[in-house]
Amino acid sequence: MLHRKNLITPLIGLVLAASAGVAAAQEQFVPLLSYRVGAYASGGSGIFGGYIDYMSYINMKEGGVNGVKLAWEECETEYNNSRGVECYERLKKKGGGAALVQPLSTGITYSLIDRVVVDKVPMVTLGYGRTDAADGRVFPWVFPMITTYWSQADAMVKFIAKKEGGDAKMKGKKLVHLYHDSAYGKEPIGVFQAYAKKLGYEFTAIAVPHPGNEQSSQWQQIRQIKPDYVILWGWGVMNPTAIKTAQRTGFPREKLIGVWWAGAEEDVIPAGAASKGYTTAAFNVSGDKLPLVQDIKKVVYAKGKGNMEDESRVGSVLHTRGIVHGIITVEAIRKAQEKYGKGKVMTGEQVRWGLENLNLDEARLKALNAAGFMPPLKMSCADHEGSGLVKFQTWDGNQWKVISDWITPDKKMLRDMIEESSTKFAKEKGITLRDCSKES
Amino acid sequence: MLYREAGQFKTSYAADQQIFPIRQDRIGIAIVLVLAFVAVPLFAKFVPDTGQYLLSAIFIPFLIFSLAALGLNILTGYAGQLSLGTAAFMAVGAFAAYNFVLRVPGIPLLVAFIAAGLCAAAVGILFGLPSLRIKGFYLAVATLAAQFFVVWTLVRFPWFSNHSSSGVITAQKMVILGYEFDSPIEKYMLTLAIVAIMAVAVKNMVRGTVGRAWMAVRDMDVAAEVIGIRLMYTKLLAFAVSSFYCGVAGALYAYAYLGTVEPEAFTLDLSFRILFMIIIGGVGSVLGSFLGAAFIVVLPIVLNVFVHGLNGLLQSTVQWSLPGSITSNLELIVFGGLIIFFLIVEPHGLARLWQIGKEKLRLWPFPH
Amino acid sequence: MAFFIETLIGGLLSGVMYALVALGFVLIYKASGVFNFAQGALVFFAAATFVGLLETGLPFWLAIVATLAAMVVVGLATERFVLRPLVNQPQITLFMVTIGLTFFLEGLTQMIWGSQPRALDIGIEDVPVEWLIERFNISVSRFDVFAASVALVLFAVLAVFFQKTRIGRALRAVADDHQAAMSIGIPLQQIWGIVWAAAGFVALVAGIMWGARNGVQFALTFTALKALPVLILGGFESIPGAILGGLIIGAIEKLAEVYVGPMFGGGIESWVAYIVALMFLLVRPEGLFGEKHIDRV
Questions:
Q1: Is the N or C terminus of chain B more exposed, i.e. has fewer CB atoms within 10 Å?
Q2: How many whole angstroms separate alpha carbon C74 and alpha carbon C66?
Q3: pTM greater than the 0.80 cutoff
Q4: Which residues of A touch C214 (CB under 8 A)?
Q5: CATH fold group of domain C2-283
């Protein structure tokens, strides 16, 4: 029999000693609910790597946000709801309170929606999560910023229409929505159907059951329909499998348009040469030649403080998406400091004000070395999306090439849809709408 | 010496057959209940930060998973029918509770929970029908049909999520007799009360006719049939009761724990975790369900905290630490390794360790 | 009609891929009564190790040999350190221990080879067979045909191994009755070691085929789920059952998805295979070729 007691006591001592060293003054704490293990580990390591790299960059280059250093702690969620909740609960009060939280998992986002309201911690979800949370009157603490799934679906239709030579040419065209059979994949169907009515294309939705590593029947259906375009709303292994199966059924990859969660190196490299010509949406530009990425390499990686273990992934789609997460975090804190005192540690409530008043116009992006890197963004109390702009990129076999300008979705139509859904939610839940005219 | 039933004479059959025949057990249960109902909330009240974390991130999920494990233990541990569809029955419970509260105006919450449990029980009976013909792993894999079919149904038919654009349900407020259960303490107390009552109910069930019939079927179903136990009735009853428990656990999972849930939250992985709880805790043991749930809920968190702490120590002493991908994978490896280790050391689970401990206590301090 | 045949052929070919994974389960279950859920993780481990070694610049065949060696080591270690101490425990405990092993292997694989998905090119282009398209307008993937041939060769090799060699006969003896096999002097543990090594080899083949098809990544562990309905249909203990079960499940799954799926909005593939297998079991509770157990009181 082992002498368990003798083992455990020093271990506890170790843990206590270690956690005591973390706390320090004048630090703004950001909890990171990361996942670096399991099926989605490559996504987690890329995005959280970029996020951490940008925060290190601000700390090392500017000494933090107006002198307030950023501090963070990672907690492994395994992309699992209960683990995510535990991590959030563990970290939310740490280091003077979380500035904001970005869960990077739709399931965990849902689990935290009620909690962040009570704890007054803003939750930012970039390009995932609940679309109708863009209505800040109903969801004051949730920020599906930059673009939502509906904006993306809208932009996809606009992109295809433009490629075909105008809205009028869409009449009689066939569109297939090949989607991950889950709430995520079903979310944009409403938008596609609305446009099908408006533009007169034929729309078919085909579901792929999770995990999507076998799609021959779906692609046989597609071969039968002979669509002009296939929209790939996939996730994980479903993406390379779809690209490969497209090739084996002879469907041209140029006509395969992916969602941004199907638009990273990790999605096309496993499919090998079959991916050439495949196009996806994106809400930021990638590549390691970008000035901001170059600067991060110079400031952070040259000193060996970079977070990515595989340096060749620096500047990849997911890594740069992580940088966008970092920019949003830092800029929200900076904006909040403008109102509540420069060089002070902000509370979650103050950061929320910063998010709602965030205005990253071209000039500001230029100052951040990020002109053209991400779309300009203007938030308000009612509009928690702020931009809605989407670009498209094509995989040329080696790297992503941007092939479009920022495409603006039909904000009015989408806003109506969002408000319809959010007010229904508010009614169900008994939430009184926030009066945005009274907010300053 | 402390734990000894010598001298506790029973003078009636009723006394001999009570749920906890030994006085020390009764005292022990009373202490646990007092701790859970009084000490924990008091602690949470006076140490709000830690208390709130413990309640909402550990105790509430622990209780809910215990309830689900209890349900599975009825089916697998007592009636001997292996099932991998636990999460599906939880999903039925969660979505049914939501729809009852939404669509039946003025329905009391607890009634909705019971109705949700009954829905789950009905689905359980449906997927339990094959158990009349199929046994062992064939049955286990067949219950996977429930797992995939239920989740598919909930995603496919938007009626279940009230046509929510995101396909998720958001649990309504928990109001019982006009009192709103909102804070972690209140949610904890409600969950605890439900779990405690249902646990005692199981304890009672398994010592009676029903439980004995289950165990007879588990040990040898042909023999059970020969002595006059109706196999179909007994097996389906086990499926129904088990699914009822899982259904209520699912409803609590949505209402008292996560708040907003998507159908995909009820994955096969969750079913496996609950199966782990009863295997590690102890098959065919009420106590084991709780011990196993505690083990599976707490172990990954302890590992995470420990590895992080160790890494922080490395960072502060030698200015070097393991990268995130290594530590995360290390946690998973250790988790898997510990499960293997536990099963090898005690294949009958933690409850068996407790039993051995009790035997020792019985003899202590004079083991010879 | 062409479309029906195309779907059928596609389904049968996918079915062979499922059978490939199911085969690993059968080997171990047959010999030791362990329902080895870690087979999916073994597939992932094998494929990741193989690609990882290729990336270090090892030639193709050397990489295969090295990976095979690694698989044998993992198999033997599993037998020695995980299953041997658990001999005579209830089946469910053995099943759970293999899930523990799954976590262990998943963590180990990602720790060694990283979490990045990789491409695996084995030189067979995944395009439709041209003359079939031109003559009959039937699209059949060239890669799938190749994979199916590889699988058939593998099945043949295993069949010969089981029927004609000394070890094979010993294996069958162990599968029939442990006690009797032991009493006539068959070294039980050695046989189990060999079976685990063989399962590792099958996992490697499955890993290369699936990896070349969809990329080498964590999701390879999910291939196990595709094998489960095949197993209950074909019987846990039968190699021909795994093959035939795979073909039936593959065909039914695809035909159902294409012809019945649209009525319900699609996606029924996730459960239809299980329901079909279930229906079948109601008629024949031990699967196609499973052994019939007679209960004695």
A1: C
A2: 12
A3: yes
A4: 213, 237, 240-241, 244, 270-271
A5: ABC transporter involved in vitamin B12 uptake, BtuC (1.10.3470)
Residue A224 burial (CB count, 10 A): 12
Identify the domain containing residue A214 by its residue range. 149-282+392-409
Q: Which chains touch A (3 or more CB pairs under 8 A)?
A: B, C
3-state per-residue secondary structure call for B229-272: CCHHHHHHHHHHHHHHHHHHHHHHHHHHHHCEECHHHCCHHHHH
Between C89, C99, C270, which is nearest B148 by CB?
Answer: C270
**Residue A42 token pair:** 């490559």
Tokens describing residue A260: 């941004």
Asked whether the beta carbons of residue A41 and residue B56 sit closer than 8 angstroms, the reply is: no
Q: How far apart are CA C40 and CA C46, in angstroms?
A: 10
Torsion of CA B327, B331, B337, B342, to 10 degrees: 150
All residues of chain A having their beta carbon less than 8 Å from the beta carbon of residue C142 are 248
Give domain status of residue A4, yes or no.
no
Instruction: Report all structural domains of chain B as residue ranges with CATH numbers, in order of start.
Output: 20-266 (1.10.3470)
At B16, list the tokens.
């001999």
* Chain length of chain B: 368
pLDDT for A353-387, tens place per residue?
A: 999 999 999 999 999 999 999 999 999 999 999 88
Positive or negative torsion for Cα C65, C71, C75, C80? positive
Quick check: is A346 in a domain?
Answer: yes
Q: Token pair for residue B61?
A: 């999920």
pLDDT of C16-69, one tens digit each? 999 999 999 999 998 888 899 999 999 999 999 999 999 998 999 999 999 999
Q: How many CB pairs under 8 A join A and B?
A: 152
DSSP state of C216: B
CB interface of A with B, residues 225-264, below 8 Å: none
Please give, rounded to a whole number of angstroms, the shortest distance from the CA of A361 to a CA of chain B.
31
Query: Which of C92, C264, C282 lies at the smallest CB-CB distance from B133?
Result: C282
> Residue C151: enclosing H or E segment and its boundaries?
helix C142-164
For residues A173 and A161, give the distance between their C-alpha atoms in angstroms, rounded to a whole number: 10
Q: Tokens at residue C1, please?
A: 């009609």
Complex confidence, ipTM:
0.90
